[in-house]
């Protein structure tokens, strides 16, 4: 099977879209996969001589930048079809010493900002393609956004989801009328399958972060932010494939050039950071992460060239900070967000953005689609990171009442016991018993009081926790 595309011109048609090519050529072009393109195998470099079908909109050899005009066109077209989400001042502002505003994109109908780009990409399809339909590979938010707006606009949508996709996500897309194909051991394979199907069935492949119309659609968030918060000092944007960053940065830097653009990645999926080190997108293995929306192994080619010149700082955050941010957003803002949506706050809480103390900062709460069990675990991890959920082992007397005394002490302190067990077989002293406790305190001061009291009362106490959100705390002090 020959590749369906390459090359600078053979699959390129000029449309009304104004998407400029990067490499010094200022001709305004858009690339169109199906329809008018012609195949010319002579022009296909050797590296493309494989079974693989390439995405004509995302070509590593000639990446495309989007312009401010693309974003404003998107804003005009999608207006009325998506939610203009609020951007209130956060209750966390005083605690962190910043004027923090939270852009609540999780309030979109399908729970994430992905609807913006999806709707715009669908509206920009040539009429013939609207009838044939689109296809994409996605594990989550993009699939839902595309399926929902396909349904609203009466455009057939196929999504290929890898076998690991949760039943809930598959079901959601089906409920929006999409054809869902569950195939492929991972996202890379699902994408290969989707691209092959796009060619065989004449469907337009819509990459969820790198398609120029997707980026332009996401950029409309930037326009809204500037209407809601005047002249912010910084806007913090979680980064997966980089489309969200590219779109918003394009909008913000055009209208408010002094505003700093901050990207955030999880330590477990640093594809944009690695691309910056490498001088271009490069495959970066990802580990399982709370921020599954950011788990993209190679950031987008178009997204990279668009975002890089506009980016002021890239931050990589630890997973525990993401968990803690999810907890804080529930407790203080009454917002349920997924890991990717909490990454911006994680960058602040972890101290990576202290230069913005006293300044006006907008952070994007970009999605709220979090699995209920994952959500529960995040809250527990968050409590542990703040030192409010503690584990300790304490050796007490084996005489009757030894464990009761410990429980009484905990009750007097107002500490809530979550789990307790005791062990005797492995202790040197046969008149002692080791008690393992998991407990919850009100706050870190309360935890400090517990530690102090236990150490005064018992000779052998060992804390096994690591409350990383507590400055200066040494593990197993
Ligand atoms: C909730 C959420 N936040 C952020 C992102 C990152 O967006 P992008 O891949 O455009 O960088 C995604 C991507 O799926 C997402 O679902």
Provide the descriptors you would attach to this structure in a database record.
477 residues; alpha/beta; Rossmann fold; 5-stranded parallel sheet; 16 helices; 17 strands; 17% strand; pyridoxal phosphate; L-serine deaminase
Q: Can you characterise this structure?
A:
This protein is of the alpha/beta class and 477 residues long. Among the domains are: 213 residues, Rossmann fold (3-Layer(aba) Sandwich), CATH 3.40.50.1100; 78 residues, Alpha-Beta Plaits, CATH 3.30.70.260. Helices cover 38% and strands 17% of the residues. The protein is built from 16 helices and 17 strands. The strands form 5 sheets. A 5-stranded parallel sheet has the order 5-13-10-11-12, with helices on both faces. It is elongated. The N terminus is likely disordered. The site of pyridoxal-5'-phosphate has 21 residues, from helix 5, helix 9 and helix 13. Its cofactor is pyridoxal 5'-phosphate. It comes from Hermetia illucens (Black soldier fly). This is L-serine deaminase. GO terms for molecular function: L-serine ammonia-lyase activity; threonine deaminase activity.
